[in-house]
Amino acid sequence: MTKLLYILFSLCLFSCNHPESKDYKRYKNVSTEKTLNTESNTETIGYKVVGIKDGDTFVVLIDGKEQVIRLEHIDCPEKKQPFGTKAKQFASDLCFGQFVQLNHKNKFDRNQRLISEIILLNGVNLNKELVNNGLAWHFKKYSDNQEYAELEVKARNNQVGIWSEPNPTAPWDWRKK
User: Fold this and answer.
1) Average per-residue pLDDT in the chain?
2) Catalytic one among 20, 39, 43, 70?
């Protein structure tokens, strides 16, 4: 009996994936999981979006615990900035309460937010949609991704969202004020 308890305890201990661990490779949320397919045909797990803090910061459930996600490659206007509320509402309309896929490299920012792209169940990349709709800048300080750069140029040329303003202020400059 003691041996059986030891084996069960060991299995529980070594099978845990805890969100605070920076070394975990795969998330699993038993209460809200769904299976998704990715382009690489690997199986991943979907996570429920339970909070939208602003256009580029979300809360999802991982292992029944909340994990804050910071969208990779982009920076949305701050809440009090022009289009800040619209960016948050746009993101909320697309994914609040929905299951999403997280495309990340297990990297966290200084606030322990997981840096990730959010992919909707229909395959839409939320990060790219925000840039494409003029509701986010390509965050070139932290991203050299050419696709995001091209989406920003397209949105600027079409004068959509933030690019309809005469002199839009980048969020990183707004935060310095």
Assistant:
1) 82
2) 70
State yes or no: is 70 an active-site residue.
yes
117 is catalytic: no
Strands 47-54 and 99-108: antiparallel
53 occurs within a structural domain: yes
Reading the block at residue 108, the tokens are 């966290």
- Candidates 72, 78, 129, 152; catalytic one: 78
Question: 76 and 54 in contact (C-beta within 8 Å)?
Answer: yes
- pLDDT, tens digit, 9 for 90 and up, residues 12-49: 433 444 333 333 233 333 333 333 333 433 345 699 99
- Domain at 109, CATH number: 2.40.50.90
113 noted as active-site residue: yes
Which range of residues forms the domain containing residue 68?
23-165
Whether 8 maps to a domain, the answer reads no
